[in-house]
Amino acid sequence: MGKVLLGISASPRKNGNCELMIKEIHAGMGAGWELRLARLSDFGIKPCQACYQCLFDKMRCPQGDGLLALLEEISSADAWIAAAPTYLLSANASLKRFLDRGLQFYAFVDRLWGKPAVAVSVAGIEGMEGSTKLNVDSLAKLAFADLRGSAVFYGALPGETLLSPENRQSALRLAKSLLDPSARMVSEGPACPVCGGDTFRFLPNGEAKCMLCSGSGKYGWKEDHLAIDIRTGDHPLFLTREDVIRHAEWLRGMKQQFLDRRKELKEVVKEYLSVGTVVGRPD
Ligand SMILES: Cc1cc2nc3c(=O)[nH]c(=O)nc-3n(C[C@H](O)[C@H](O)[C@H](O)COP(=O)(O)O)c2cc1C
After folding, report:
1. What span, in angstroms and rounded, lies between the C-alpha atoms of 228 and 202?
2. Ligand 1 proximity of 13 Cβ (cutoff 6 Å)
3. C-alpha closest to that of 174 among 152, 148, 194
4. CB 190 within 8 A of CB 202
C-alpha cells in the first residue's frame, strides 16, 4: 500500500499558490505517495478559549469543531506539509488560529512525534514575507514534527509561484528531504545550530535568541559571515520527546499554581476591574 502525504493549506484560495506548491512537492516525491489535501477553511477551526481542558482528563477540546479531525489526519499520515500565505507580514490568521489550538497537540504526541514534515511559506512580493516562515516552521515544530526543510515561495497571482524555476527547485528539495530521514533544515544564511531556525532577536546582553527553539547564545563575525552559537534554553521547543512531556507537565502544574495563588492574584486585579468602558459593536 502507498504512503500518505498530507498537505495542509491555510489559504482561502482554492488552487492558489499554497495548494500548488503542496502539489509540486508531492509530484517531486515520485510514485507511491497519495496526496491528501486539508484546507483549513473546511475545518471551521474556532479560536482557543484558554480553558485548558485539552490538557486534563480526557484531553479533548470541548469546542466540537474540526480540530480533532485534522489532528487525526496528521496522525495517520506518513508525512505532512504545512503551507500558509503571507498576509500583512505574517502567516494568515487561519494558520495562527490552528496553531493557537496547539495545546491539544499534546494528546496526540505519541502519534505525531517525529513525523517528517516541511514548511511552505508563500509571499506575493520578494522579501515581504515578514514572520511567515517563522510562523509555519513553528506550527510544524509545535506539532512535534521532524521538520526537514522550509522554503519561502514568491508569487502573487494564483499559479505565479509555478512560473519560477527557483520555486520549482525549492519544491523538489523539500520533496527530497521528506524522503530522506537524515535531512535537516538548512538555511542559506546564519541559522540556529540547535534547531535550524533562521529568525533571531538580538538581545541587549550581546546574545541572540532563536525565535523557533528559544535557545540563546553569543554571536559574532567569523571571517565574512555571522556565526550564532545557540545553547538550549530552559523551555526548548521541542528538541526531544522528553521536552514535550516536561512542557506539558509544566503547563498542567500551572493549574495548581493558579489555585495556590488565586487570592493574591484576585487582590492585585481587584482595583483594575471597574476601570475603563468596555466598547463593542453597536447593535
Ligand atoms: C490580505 C492580504 C495581505 C497580503 N499581505 C502580503 C504581505 O504582507 N507580503 C507579501 O509578500 N504578500 C502579501 N499578500 C500576497 C499573498 O501572500 C500572495 O498573493 C500569495 O500568493 C497568496 O497565496 P495563495 O495563492 O495560496 O492564497 C497578501 C495577500 C492578501 C490577500
Report:
1. 11
2. yes
3. 148
4. no
- Ligand 1 centre to CA of 158 (Å) is 10
Q: What angle do CA 233, 239, 243 make, to 5 degrees?
A: 75
Q: Which position has the grid cell 489526519? A: 73
Question: Is the Cβ–Cβ distance between 136 and 150 less than 8 Å?
Answer: yes
What is the residue with the minimal CA distance to atom 12 of ligand 1? Answer: 124
Distance of alpha carbon 169 from alpha carbon 230, whole angstroms:
30
C-alpha dihedral over 152, 240, 229, 138, to 10 degrees?
30
* pLDDT tens by residue, the chain, 283 residues: 699 999 999 999 999 999 999 999 999 999 999 999 999 999 999 999 999 999 999 999 999 999 999 999 999 999 999 999 999 999 999 999 999 999 999 999 999 999 999 999 999 999 999 999 999 999 999 999 999 999 999 999 999 999 999 999 999 999 999 999 999 888 778 899 999 999 999 999 999 999 999 999 999 998 888 989 988 877 777 889 999 999 999 999 999 999 999 999 999 999 999 999 999 999 8
Radius of gyration, CA atoms only, the chain? 20
What grid cell was written down for 49?
478559549
Can you give the pTM of this predicted structure? 0.96
Question: Which domains occur in the chain, in start order?
Answer: 3-186 (3.40.50.360)
In whole angstroms, give the CA distance from residue 204 to residue 180.
Answer: 39
Compute, in angstroms, the gap from residue 9 CA to the centroid of ligand 1. Answer: 13
CA of 252 to the centre of ligand 1 (A): 38
